[in-house]
Design brief:
Chain lengths: 190, 196
């Protein structure tokens, strides 16, 4: 009798959660409407760059955040900066090492909504070069309807934790440790 | 020593601006010539940062100096100089002033065109003079280099002229700009010269 009750309970939980899990919409990137930029501080001046090639795998439902997840994959070689001397330097093994580590990946573990706002934060990890470090993505849902979703936000990275800036570049006097990443992601339901 | 200039000599403000800027400008020229050939390194970035900030300091100081110059009387050129020598002296000084403005402005424009804005010793960031542009950056780089060598030439001529006045013509032109000279001496020199 006791065993039967447990079975029934398990069955009911599955019955309740399975459709919910299946209903968390999955989104695909709209690259033309999305960007990932970064700002490093060189000699007290912000230096802007961007990554033009990245993809996302997003499952997101504000009502089912425990079933939502964000994965971002960035092709490091798609980095662009206006100053060519800086760009060539950043591509080398001292910095992003784009040939040895062509991809950087963020994976969320937990998404939290800030009460009564459209602001969220995703705790996760970023793998850059050969290091995996906890990172928080802060974002705001700018728009969400039954077809598309647009989010924008930022993250603060500490480049030295990833070994970005080897040898003499590990000193953060000239190029600061903190790098601000800003993004806008527009996605449509798959 | 009076703060302001007199008809015969420079006051302490003019002297401080002259010699202070001389040290900064000569330093910038030497560092500038060295840093361009340095390999990419944190030190190179740091030196560029200081070069830019000191260059902007020169721009501020030359502005103050010009304002101070017109707020004051100019010490007169020795009567012994011929008209064309006086013309040459004025043209030389005008060229030096032009270069003291053109050097920092071309450097600032080069930085803006290179997409690397200028920080004034970490206190504030200067607005960009021009939008980032590779072609303009290359042009500004050439211009900054050519102007630098013009400035080197003008400084050498300027120093040579001062020494010529002092040792050959034996007038007070050099002494009246030197720091720590006694007022009596050059005032007397000036009086003597006025009679020439």
């Amino acid at each position: 009798m006791h065993k039967t009750a447990t079975l029934w309970l398990a069955a009911s939980i599955l019955w309740v959660t399975y459709p919910a899990f299946a209903n968390v919409p999955r989104y695909a990137l709209i690259p033309q409407k999305s960007f990932i930029k970064f700002f490093a501080i060189q000699n007290n001046v912000p230096l802007e760059g961007k990554f033009s090639d990245f993809d996302v795998d997003i499952r997101f439902d504000p009502e089912q955040l425990d079933q939502s997840s964000i994965t971002v994959e960035v092709r490091t070689g798609s980095i662009a900066m206006f100053n060519q001397e800086v760009l060539q330097n950043v591509r080398t093994s001292d910095w992003l090492s784009v040939d040895a580590f062509p991809k950087a990946t963020f994976k969320s573990h937990k998404i939290t909504r800030m009460t009564n706002t459209d602001n969220y934060y995703a705790d996760g990890t970023l793998t850059l070069r050969d290091k995996t470090v906890p990172v928080v993505l802060n974002f705001k849902m700018d728009h969400i309807d039954n077809r598309t979703a647009i989010a924008s936000g930022y993250a603060t990275l500490h480049r030295r934790k990833f070994g970005v800036g080897q040898g003499e570049w590990a000193n953060d006097e000239v190029i600061k440790d903190e790098v601000r990443v800003e993004f806008r992601v527009a996605a449509e339901k798959k | 020593m009076p703060l302001k200039n007199t008809a015969s000599s420079y006051g302490s403000v003019s002297k401080l601006l002259h010699w202070g800027m001389a040290i900064i400008i000569i330093g910038l020229l030497i560092v500038g010539m060295i840093m361009v050939d340095m390999p990419t390194s944190p030190d190179r970035f740091k030196i560029y940062g200081f070069h830019k900030a000191f260059g902007i300091l020169v721009l501020v100081l030359v502005g103050l100096r010009l304002a101070w110059k017109y707020y004051n009387v100019f010490p007169v050129l020795p009567e012994s100089m011929t008209a064309w020598e006086k013309y040459l002296a004025r043209a030389g000084h005008a060229t030096l002033y032009f270069l003291m403005f053109a050097m920092p402005l071309s450097g600032w424009a080069m930085s803006s065109a290179a997409g690397l804005p200028v920080s004034f010793f970490g206190l504030f960031i200067l607005p960009d003079l021009v939008a980032p542009n590779q072609k303009l950056k290359a042009d500004m780089m050439d211009m900054h280099g050519v102007l630098a060598w013009c400035l080197v030439g003008m400084i050498l001529l300027h120093a040579a002229a001062a020494l010529l006045h002092h040792f050959y013509y034996k007038n007070n032109v050099l002494l009246r700009m030197l720091p720590f000279t006694k007022k009596g001496r050059y005032a007397q020199d000036s009086d003597t010269m006025a009679g020439c």
